[in-house]
Amino acid sequence: MIKKFKWILSILAVFILIVPLISCNKQEETYTLRVGEVTHSIFYAPQYVALSEGFFEEEGLDVKVQTTWGGDKTMTALLSDGVDIALVGAETSIYVYAQGASDPVVNFAQLTQTDGTFLVSREKIESFSWDQLKDTTFLGQRKGGMPQMVGEYVLKQHDINPQKDLNLIQNVDFANIANAFASGTGDYVQLFEPTASIFEKEGRGYIVASFGEESGSVPYTTYMSKQSFIKENKEAIEKFTRAIYKAQQWVDTHSAEEVAKSIQPQFEDTSLDIIETVVERYKAQQSYAKTPLLPEEAWKNLQDIMDEAGELPAEVNYSELVNTSFAEKVISE
Q1: Does 89 have pLDDT greater than 50?
Q2: Which of 51, 102, 243, 300 is the 20 to 30 Å CA partner of 169?
Q3: Does position 90 have pLDDT exceeding 80, yes or no?
């Protein structure tokens, strides 16, 4: 009887030792996710906060971000499995869907909710009005992308016909637009940050208006993935969305100075004061979404803007290309 009791104790002791090891291994399971961002910008501050503040790590994620420079290149990387998740304008998912994709690209988390570009003038203007753009050369963004469509939408709201009232240039690659303006092309240019503020600090251009303030709420940049990838990696997508939500809340509740210090390692060539200025500007116009939930009204506004620009191939139902289940779950926790 005593031998049997000792044998049972031995088994229990081994079990007690093994269980923590199993739990530990389960906790240490890490998902690797490759994210392709359409450009590298302070406009995406919550993503960099998620990296710097360890929110991805807390969720057991190893997130590798690469800049894919432009919507077309970003979608090519996603569709060819070069990346798992794309951070890009929501309009790209509509383009893919319209081409009859058997594995559509689905938006599952929103990062920014306004346009992130600014109108930069070559000359300093004390009192700017939109009609001053008439009969000038405007260096715009790539045709068919959200910056260009929002840009034209805003111009039309101010009774400016982009094709008739100004000399519109749209044949410059996304990555080269700033260099083209710096080299003397255009009287006005549509730029992202921090480039716009850097140009202003260096006296090479002057911010005169915000396209984000003018255009209203729109799913400007969202996280999306192929439908098949989402189905096969639900836990990883949920963890990713939760980390982004934590970062969004962190950005919302911390000062521009604190956000700037957190993301500065991502922008080593940009001074801290410029980063802080840009963050403050985006926070003031509520460009950073406070939750990853993409609202249906914003989806409608997106398609209205695309339609106005003549770039909407077909109207797509909200439920067709937007999956809100992950965002709703992490928000409700």
Answers
A1: yes
A2: 300
A3: yes
Tokens 């080299």, residue located: 183
Range of the domain at 252: 31-114+218-332
Q: Sorting pLDDT into bands at 50, 70 and 90, what band is 305?
A: very high
Given CA atoms 45, 47, 51, 56 in this order, what sign does their dihedral have? positive
Exposure of 294 in the CB half-sphere (CA atoms within 13 A): 29
pLDDT at 218: 94
Beta bridge partners of 105: 226
Q: Which of 197, 215, 233 is the last residue of a domain?
A: 215
**Which residue's structure tokens are 């929103």?**
110
Backbone phi and psi for residue 64, each to the nearest 5 degrees, phi listed first? -110, 115
* Spatial separation of the C-alpha atoms in residues 212 and 22, rounded to whole Å: 50
- Residue type, position 95, single letter: Y
Q: What is the mean pLDDT of residues 91-113?
A: 96
What distance in Å separates the CA atoms of residue 251 and residue 111, rounded to the nearest whole number? 12
pLDDT for 22 beyond 50: no
Do 73 and 210 reside in the same domain of the chain? no
Sign of CA dihedral 72, 137, 303, 242: positive
- Angle at alpha carbon of residue 175, lines to 113 and 192, rounded to 5°: 35
Q: Are 207 and 57 in contact (CB under 8 A)?
A: no
Cα–Cα distance, 308 to 215 (Å, whole number)? 13
**In a 3-state reduction of DSSP, which class is residue 253?**
helix
In degrees and rounded to multiples of 5, residue 287 shows phi and psi of -75, -35
Q: How much is the average pLDDT of 70-87?
A: 96
169 forms beta bridges with 139
Burial annotation 117-143 (CB, 10 A radius, 16+ → b, else e): bbbbbbeeeeeeebeebeeeebbbbbe
